[in-house]
């Protein structure tokens, strides 16, 4: 499968940055379309991932896939969510800092799916212990519970999140997930009592009715048929084929037991869900005085039982309002309309607060008890933000206003942290930069949230002021105070042409993602979100402990008016942005390909609109012109100083000069970097990754233990390509006959390999080496000499001084590895082509003098996977493993069982040699063959290409 995936992903470009010179929208769309039609739904813009909803199950999320992406630099494999997740994870582990992954896009674009898949990725690939298994399961299973209570079928999405969710996954110092914490944002409570045409209420209602056994339904006083419940039939939604409520019910029930819910919790929770359904069926009629009375007492009895509320008090609370007059409390009867209002208000309040209780309860079960108990509180986090997408309905109300405001804020964050921050930084650092224009939506955020002058302030003012405030008076205030704003229109303010499309009760905002017309009706009521005091009292005294937790008696004593819904939401978004700003970001931009949820359909018009408003073109332009990576000189030098003798172990001058020496040494080309006032800017990720790999290799040499784990990982989880016997000879020929020039990043590794190999070799040189005639040493040896470690070694020019005549044959490896080994088509390298020392050493040892290829390797075998530094020498007929000046092993090609490599650029090759005993009896069964592993340095890997 991986092979297929990699082979297929040659469609278009995997990173928009690689598009031909011009960055037109048409070229962008073409690439996206081309890839989408091949089911390649992911494409990068630098490190940002663009994802197009496939609307079909693709074989992209298997455990094998997860393991493939684990620990691999993201440019090495086709774009994927896992690459983004893995990158954030690895940086977190290396740098002990916090991260977040912002997943954005409109409703139905695939945000929730992406966040679930990332969570699964961490659950599968992160190290864990038996104790931590529970944390892992809880993290995973919190999802179906939250979705059951917080998601619903809408016209745009059969599983639309009707709340915002930010989840921190906490990791310990070993990178194991040890806990989590969820923040939820503004659940769409109005859905409990009303659904638009074609939509459903929250999933849990249907799951309970479809899935619960008879006894439970009977205990709750419910019938199985959803059509019997007024709160479930508002949207007249027919059967939804993509939803299996019965199955989902089972998952939710199981999840409850894992996330620490007791049977009592569950009983009370479903008591509340059932009460909401009963509330919806309460009908009122007028008595002779025009006061509301409950038509049929059946429902209220059930509610009284399930919520543990006194029947007559509950009855009275639903039909009366308690008014405080001086020190007296007076009960005033409600008319029928107000009674319905009170009923719906209590249903919404119960559901909304129970949802918050649920999140808190889940948080309790996700809390990092392991770290707490062991005193290890030091943890890093990766936050996943999956929040409701930008929404435009036929009629947009207060909820859409909040949702779209939230999306404005997130867009603003993205701009602040990418487009603006990046360009500001270039300017600050004195990097030459042609500013790239982009639309900054701060102006719209201000319009909504500015103190005193913004829409939320104006709305609050209307809600809180004495006198008769109405939705219309709110609209008038808006016209008065923000009427001249470029992003605000009402019918009165509109020109002749637009006027027709705006009703008298509407106002229109020109959002970054497009125009949305909001109907002001209901704004005041929803923003106030008032619950009559006597209803609150009933709930505070409920015997249902969840309800009692949700409605605290202390609330009744608090005479201060609670904050309005919009202000609460604004404040919670402000804290969310603060949380996010303190972390390192990764971005996934989800795109919805069509309105019909159809696989394979790429609606150009719809997608172009999203590309535009998501700011993808601007992002691409900044990325193309900009730098992938930047680091303070001090930090850069600190990390990589071991790669250069001049900076290792200490550099005493200014950091910038140390960095200059360092990058000169590793061979950065001028176009690969720029030096700013305080930072180095690296243009391409691959330059950085090459440096990082060299650093890792150096680390490995300093501490061989680390290589063991790399090996174990490679062997157990990466995809291996087994090369069969019949192509083996061709492989060897290709292996030894490549002849393309070194590419710059490989040259670094080669030089590094040489350097360390030679450093070691100096103490083991065979005597006769010193008798040879000598040429000028290559620069790498000068360095060694310069560092005082190799002064007595000379540079040989013996009979084997030129490899070039031996490197004339065709590269035949392509026949074997084409399309299988990632990075295959990149340019080749020739380790040791420009050096002849190793060749010479080997020539001393292998008298036939017909060797073709030499490279230092780290060899592992089955005896404890011990890492050993060796030379691998290939002749026309055999491979030799050489330790310093001694031949340790000779393997004739004719006896080889096979050879395997992973399909990554990890430089690992496994040579399968027959078991000695079995060889004697001629048994070539693969299962019996011994494995001699050779983890080649990066430079050698490139030979395979
Ligand atoms: N990677 C994917 N593979 C297969 N199907 C997908 C994928 N991503 C999304 N879908 C399909 O699209 C539907 C909508 O996706 P999702 O619920 O993630 O959207 P969303 O952006 O979170 O929407 P909302 O803002 O309404 O919550 C999913 O229920 C699923 O059917």
From TrEMBL:
Entry keyword Repeat: yes
GO BP annotations listed: actin filament organization; actin filament-based movement; endocytosis
Keyword Metal-binding: no
PROSITE patterns: MYOSIN_MOTOR, TH1
Keyword line: Actin-binding, ATP-binding, Motor protein, Myosin, Nucleotide-binding, Repeat
Gene Ontology molecular functions: actin filament binding; ATP binding; microfilament motor activity
Region (Actin-binding): 573-595
Domain of life: Eukaryota
GO cellular component, one term: cytoplasm
Annotated ranges, domain TH1: 806-945
PANTHER family documented for this protein: MYOSIN, UNCONVENTIONAL MYOSIN-IH
Family designation: Belongs to the TRAFAC class myosin-kinesin ATPase superfamily. Myosin family.
Name of the protein: Myosin IH
Source organism (scientific name): Catharus ustulatus
